[in-house]
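Ticket #4471: structure export looks truncated?
Reporter: QA, pipeline team
Priority: medium

Steps to reproduce: submit the single chain below to the structure queue and open the exported record.
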Amino acid sequence: MSAGRDVLDTARTRHLFSRAARQPVTVPEDIAQVLVSGIEARLVQGLGLARRAGQALCGFVKCREWIVGGKAGLVIQGSGGSRMSCGV
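Actual output as written to the record:
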């Protein structure tokens, strides 16, 4: 089973949420977007906490130093950013 939009829509239209809860449940039509928005908010909050703890950073030069130095475990690039070409 997956959490794809089509799966969520099928579960909503077949009233599977109510069946699982064993009581009437009102599920918004845009449940998939509600979940995506919630996940995005948690991600942004987590990144903010990581930045304050010194475990995450932003900026091309700083990120390039971490990547080249082998300190980067994960690189997240915003959709509005330019392609990162730092020779790695």
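Status: closed, not a bug. The export was complete when the record was re-opened. Leaving a note from the reviewer for reference: The chain has two domains: 5-56, 57-88.
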